[in-house]
Amino acid sequence: MVRSGWFSRKPNGNKSSTDIPAGIVTKCQRCNEILFVRDFERNSKVCTKCGFHHKLSAYERLEITVDEGSFQPLNEHIISRDPLNFIEYPAKLEKAQTNTKLTEAIVTGTAFIDNKPVVIGVSDFGYMGGSMGSVVGERISRAMEYGLAHRLPVILFTASGGARMQEGLLSLMQMAKTSASAGKLRNEGILYVCVLTDPTTGGVYASYACLGDVILAEPGAVVGFAGRRVGNQDTGVNLPDNFQTSEFQAEHGMVDRILQRKEIRPALALLLKLFDGGRHNDR
Amino acid sequence: MIGDVFDFEKPIAEVETLIQELKSPQRREEALREGIDLSAKIAELEEELHRVMVRVYKNLSPWEKTQLARHKDRPYSLDYIRLIFDDFFELNGDRLAANDEAIVGGPAILESRPVMVIGQQKGRDIKERQRRNFGSAHAEGFRKALRLARMAERFHMPLITMVDTAGAAADLHAEELGVSEAIAHNLREFSLLKTPIIVTIIGEGGSGGALGLAIGDHVSMLEHSIYSVISPEGCAAILWHDKSRASDAAKSLCLTASNALSIGVIDNILPEPLGGAHRDPVTMAETIKTSLLSSLNKLDSLPSVDILIETRYQRLRRMGEYVERTPSEEDSNDG
Q1: Nearest to B325 among A77, A237, A248 (CB)
Q2: Residue B261: is it exposed, middle or buried by C-beta count within 10 angstroms (0-12/13-18/19+)?
Q3: Mean pLDDT score across all residues of chain B
């Protein structure tokens, strides 16, 4: 009783921390540290205390990855329809478009990284979980084919729960389509780099995301085939703490390097240099 | 019918029970004693049975087809291999880590012609099911398949695959050995394989695990098989947090053979004997064999292996449905 006053005491007037105008502070999703938005964004949404890598939108990613003003979008005119008349799909598409201001769950185009030309694609998890339907698959295949036609290396940032259920079998076939296009790049000696970000799972991980000549990943990203829960239920085996993370995948030989967010652009620039622009012309 | 009977099979089971009873030794003895001729009654019931079966099996819902595709008596890859090919010689191991019995394969003779055959294999009894992980392959299964596919390429054998899996394994071991990488790798390498590939979906075509063996030049589905991006139960759990609504989910997912044909994912549907493949595996095997030979004939007539591979690529490239807005539409929509 004696001490209860400490906890029940109100700050002066009605002011509390919630009265700080929105947009000045935010909270780390992992360690709950209160962070100034300005510092948080300056650090590309990596927690300044615990280093947790929060998700980025496609354009936030482009901004920290490519040379300023160099991005030119491709195939934005390809948009989704509802081929199976799937429950609430059109409404979900509309909501995703409103929330993200994107035309689909991946943005693709051309850009420069350290003055070297590339084809680049970035998934946006905010758009229906970054899921791959016909349009995402088509934009990826076209991006790869653009790389083939213009002999440009292809860089894809993944952030996706997997295939988009609402397009049924057509979504499943996007795994085949994108992987076949990746095969063309490989045959033609064009560098293909995947950067796995949180999360990369299911049909996306089991197709084009696993096929990069070089595979990079952000720390702590969820990366795996099926959900953690699925594995647990199926076997009753105790799963390691890092199960289905980029660290787990790196430990098992599936990822070349885990890089801090700020290290990715320099790494891509270096790879482009090491692979001589990422296109072998004597093939 | 003995054993598990699906709801939709109940009307059939009822008539079958009646027929079996009339054919029982006791009834025949009784009839003989009383001087009654049961054969007319049996013939009548058998006709009735046929009518009921036609009615039931021509109008199966997507969920009923799912159940039939998973039927415990449904012929599996090894059953068809035995019935369709001669001299099948099973090969084992991925030459990297392990041998996965969820996928079987090896060279065999299709009418006088050497081919490589690979199939997903569920188990008949509990022990075999465990040994084969219920037909859900791990990375080593997909890698064994790729090893055999490469061998087919080197020895100029056509590759014949049979798909029948609820999905790839999703446990710790699968993740440790990289099941995602193994599937992705197969998708890419099968798309480039320099030999004809003929795919038949004989039961369940479950998601990425099915796709890992399903890249080919000609893809068929048996009439009551299914092919889906996610299981109806999984879809129902996501959509409604209720696995029991799998029947609704099956309908939404468009997972039947006729759905797959209409969206251009498969090339043809192989009709099943009345009541499903398990009621007459020999006839089913004949149908598959005829289809394999005819597809092989067509693929043989392609002028070069480059054309074969480019045609396969274009086939995959066409998959998907979307709208391409013209620039003017874009202006008006963005305006």
Answers
A1: A77
A2: middle
A3: 93
Question: Residue A19: pLDDT above 70?
Answer: no
pLDDT in tens, B65-76: 999 999 999 999
Please state the φ and ψ torsions of residue B97, each to the nearest 5 degrees: -150, -35
Using the Cβ of B172 and the Cβ atoms of chain A, whether some distance falls under 8 Å is answered with: yes
In chain A, residues with a C-beta closer than 8 Å to the C-beta of B181 are: 206, 210, 254
Residue B244 phi/psi, 5° resolution?
-70, -10
Preferred mutation among B142, B172, B233, B251 to probe A, highest tally of A CBs within 10 A: B172
Which residues are CB-contacts of A246 (< 8 A; sequence separation ≥ 6)? Answer: A196, A217, A218, A219, A220, A221, A223, A255, A258
Over the stretch B217-260, which tens digit does the pLDDT of each residue have? Answer: 999 999 999 999 999 999 999 889 988 899 999 999 999 999 99
Q: Does A205 touch chain B (CB under 8 A)?
A: yes
Residue whose structure tokens are 């003895």: B29
Residues of B whose CB is below 8 A from A181 = 317
Q: Which residue has the higher pLDDT, A233 or B263?
A: B263
Q: What is the ipTM of this complex?
A: 0.93
Determine how many CB atoms are found less than 10 A away from the CB of residue B304. 8
Q: Where are the domains of chain A?
A: 11-54, 55-278
Residue of A104, A167, A173, A244 to mutate when probing chain B, most B C-beta within 10 A: A173
Q: What's the Cα-to-Cα distance from A237 to each of A8, A209, B92, B97, B160, rounded to whole Å?
A: 46, 27, 27, 21, 36
Chain A residue with the nearest C-alpha to that of B215: A176
* Backbone torsions φ then ψ of B105, nearest 5 degrees: 180, 165
Over residues A116-152, the pLDDT tens digits come to 999 999 999 999 999 999 999 999 999 999 999 999 9
Model's pTM, two decimal places?
Answer: 0.92
**What CATH class has A55-278?**
alpha beta
